[in-house]
Structure formats: C-alpha cells, structure tokens
Amino acid sequence: MALPHVLIIDDSLAETRIFSALLEKSGYQVSVACNGQEGIQVAKARQPDVILMDVVMPLVNGFQATRELTRTPETAHIPIIVCTSKSAETDRLWAMRQGAKAYLVKPVAPKVLLDTLAQFVRKAGFHDKPV
Fold first, then answer.
1. What gap in Å lies between CA 90 and CA 88, rounded to an integer?
2. Which of 53, 61, 89, 120 has the most CB atoms lying inside 10 A of its own CB?
3. What is the per-residue pLDDT for 122?
4. How far apart are CA 59 and CA 61, in angstroms?
C-alpha cells in the first residue's frame, strides 16, 4: 500500500528535519524543497497528496508559491497547509485568499500538525490516517 505523500517547502533546515522525522515516523512519505521556486517544480514532478508550505523564503515566498500551485491545473488539486511563524490574522487571510486550505502557526504542536494533515490525507483517498 502506498504511503500518503507530503511535500515540505521550507527554507529552514532545522524545521525541515523536525517535520520530516515526525511525518516519516507517523507513516508519511516525505519530499522536501528549500524555497517556493523549487517547491513548485517538485510539486509538479512528484504530485504529493498534501503540501506543507512555509511563507518566508528566498526567491519565491510561500504566498507566491501557493498562488502559483493553486492556479496551475496540474497542481490545483493538491491541498496546501501553510505552516509559518507569521501569526497575524492578515497573513492567515492572505494565505487563504491565495488558495491555502489550512493555516498553522509555528511552533506547531505535533498532534495539531498530524491531525490537520490527516484531514487532507483522507480527502486524498487514504482512509486510515498514518500511525
């Protein structure tokens, strides 16, 4: 059985390692991109089930990448969860206007992250959330 696939787009190596370890331990396949530009390319090539998107990144920020991915037919079906240190309500609203399906503020509790991912993994056709 295939594992649900999460693409993490984040320029912080520490955050990426923490999220990757948690997700892999919890039964997810993980891909990583270090900025929005690379993330767009990886999403198109690998077609993940869910994208975990940071906002503050070089080259193409998370808002720009989210907008691009949700407006491109080949990636529009992939739900994007923005996960950022930006906690202002205006940032959350802007992310949702760009097409994000959920917005989490770092540091995010592991249970909150896993529960949020599980919602979208089920919608992607995985009936049992990873353990």
1. 5
2. 53
3. 74
4. 7
The CB density around residue 103, as the number of other CB atoms within 10 Å, is 22
Which residues, given as ranges, of the chain have pLDDT below 50?
129, 131
Phi, psi of 128 (to 5 degrees): -110, 125
CATH number 3.40.190.10 is the correct assignment for the domain at 8-122: no
pTM: 0.93
How far is Cα 93 from Cα 70, in angstroms, rounded to an integer?
Answer: 16
**What residue segments make up the domains of the chain, in order of their start?**
8-122
